[in-house]
Amino acid sequence: MFSRILVPLDGSSRAEQALPIAGRIARWSGASVVLVRGITVPAMFGVMYEGQALKWRSYLDEQGEAQAYLGAVAQSAYLAHAQVETHVAFGAAADVIVNTAVKREADLVVMMSHGRTGLGRWMLGSVADHIAHHSPIPVLIMREGAGSSMLERADERQPLHVLVPLDGSPLAETALGCASALALALAKPGSAHVHLMLVVAPYRAMRTYMPDALLLDGAAAYLEKVAQRLPSEVGDEALTVTWSIVAQGDIAHGIIAAAEMKEAGETSVAGESHSRCDLIAMATHGQSAVARWALGSVTERVLHGTMLPLLIVRPCEIAAAAMDGRDTTLLPTDDPGS
To answer: 3-class SS at 289?
Structure first.
């Protein structure tokens, strides 16, 4: 699925922790890698200033240093199996990343959530937030040290576990394809396990308050159907899919607790058990006419609340149009988590 992976760097060792993950994905998917670095120049820099030429020369020197740096990183052993391109541009870091991703036709951004600041540097925490909200392509955001555990599991041939929260809408389902492809690429030569989860309000999970049991029966039928079709859609026997329904008053809290296997008051009311996850994958928006998940806000809360890597997928217009023809009447009618 992946043909070109973009990795933003700021010169820090922390930002470079994205390289092993990007390298593994590229190796097993045959993708090329684009290393990008932005240099921020103040908007009014040098205007009506006697030493303007000297000041601009310092930024040109910075550009040369950045190009040399990316050239050296391109020779990293992590990227030995991939074709590597480099790109340096002046501008706000987030704009440089998004613009480069679009111009180079990248289909995945892999980045750390925090880096360092300084001349021409980025504060990757705020940049990552901006990219999560505005990137038109999927973004894998990781905290420091998060990638190493995934690689260790893959090297030991242990299944890589990915949690994909759904709400019954086609918009939320747009994360499935990318999540499966990413899990399989990271897990190679081992196997991947995708666990589908739907969070419901606790009172709706109790048949006493729902005599016809439409919610649980409908949600279970929906998740089982998705779980059955996903492996064939992906076309890889190394992918295992399970599902569960969790009762939790706070959707984001329930997602994090389930992924990290924390005691957070959540109750599994249907489906299968799963292990602690290595990765969470979800769409930025999945609000359906009935389900009412404001996945934009839920995704943001998960991003800031979990230590696990988070794959964020922005649904396309096709998925939004398809939502009109999907029956979601068996799913929740309120939004307890947004």
So the answer is: coil
Nearest of 299, 264, 26, 329 to residue 174 by alpha carbon: 299
Phi-psi region of 122 (alpha: psi -120 to 50; beta: other; left: phi over 0): beta
Per-residue tokens: 11:
């010169």
Q: Tell me the whole-structure pTM to 2 decimals.
A: 0.81
pLDDT tens over the chain, length 338 residues: 799 999 999 888 889 999 999 999 999 999 999 999 988 765 544 444 455 554 555 666 778 889 999 999 999 999 999 999 999 998 888 889 999 999 999 999 999 986 444 333 344 457 888 888 788 899 999 988 777 777 777 677 778 899 999 988 888 899 999 999 999 999 888 889 999 999 887 766 666 655 444 577 788 889 999 999 998 888 877 899 999 988 887 889 889 998 988 754 456 666 677 778 999 999 886 444 333 344 467 888 898 888 899 999 987 643 344 444 444 434 443 343 33
Q: How far is CA 261 from CA 143, 253, 276, in A?
A: 18, 12, 5
